[in-house]
């Protein structure tokens, strides 16, 4: 069972959600496909070993993992009697709590510090303890990148890097450095994820989709480009929604 919990109101600009995955007795492991969303997650494994990713990565028990920004889909395989607790950060907001650079973390699942395991995440009231922990860690510094990310989301991924840099008084090189360090991918790659999410949302809302028209609406070069991008992010052709 997958469940989401809202963080404290003072954290909602930085943390999208706390989430849990809990399984009881299963005949077969629960397999699910996870699509890119531009977010970074911390995952605490409180149960049995979980398998994730095309490379069959293992999330070992009683460990915390940093899952970097995804640029393609991944499949997770959760066995019986599992419990995962996750923190999904809004794009660019990980730096509000941790000084670690995210450069090189895209599509990676990396062992992280185990301090979160001290919060008794398997017991009642764990969300309040997470709130207290992250409120203590929250940096008051201005996060310029979140403003830029807001512009990308507002334009559904259809802004050029040069335009973004100019509007926020940065050089393109400096803008890319901020993205690599605080998001883990380039501004162009992040914009592609945002554009995909906008297109995928429209596809799922519409029963009969004119793919050529949707491709044009969402800013793709043509229907072929659109189809290739959807397949890259989901592993499925557009018609297999």
Automatic annotation (TrEMBL):
Name assigned to this protein: AraC family transcriptional regulator
Bilayer-crossing regions: none
Gene Ontology molecular functions: DNA-binding transcription factor activity; sequence-specific DNA binding
Domain HTH araC/xylS-type residues, every copy: 143-241
SMART domains tied to this protein: HTH_ARAC
Keyword annotations: DNA-binding, Transcription, Transcription regulation
Species annotation: Filimonas zeae
InterPro entries hit by this protein: AraC_XylS_family_regulators, DUF6597, Homeodomain-like_sf, HTH_AraC
């Amino acid at each position: 069972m997958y469940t989401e919990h809202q963080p404290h109101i003072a954290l909602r600009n930085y943390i999208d959600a706390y989430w849990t995955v809990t399984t009881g007795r299963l005949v077969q492991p629960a397999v699910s496909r996870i699509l890119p969303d531009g977010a970074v997650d911390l995952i605490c494994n409180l149960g049995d070993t979980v398998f994730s990713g095309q490379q069959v990565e293992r999330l070992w028990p009683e460990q915390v993992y940093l899952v970097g920004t995804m640029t393609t889909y991944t499949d997770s395989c959760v066995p019986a009697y599992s419990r995962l607790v996750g923190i999904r950060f809004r794009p660019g907001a990980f730096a509000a709590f941790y000084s670690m650079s995210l450069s090189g973390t895209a599509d990676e699942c990396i062992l992280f510090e185990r301090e979160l395991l001290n919060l008794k995440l398997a017991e009642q009231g764990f969300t309040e303890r997470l709130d207290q922990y992250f409120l203590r860690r929250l940096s008051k510094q201005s996060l310029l990148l979140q403003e830029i990310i807001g512009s990308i989301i507002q334009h559904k991924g259809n802004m050029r890097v040069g335009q973004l840099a100019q509007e926020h008084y940065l050089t393109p090189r400096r803008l890319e450095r901020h993205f690599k360090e605080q998001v883990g991918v380039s501004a162009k790659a992040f914009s592609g994820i945002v554009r995909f999410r906008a297109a995928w949302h429209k596809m799922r809302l519409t029963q009969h989709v004119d793919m050529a028209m949707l491709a044009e609406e969402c800013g793709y070069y043509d229907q072929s480009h659109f189809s290739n991008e959807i397949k890259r992010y989901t592993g499925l052709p557009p018609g297999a929604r």
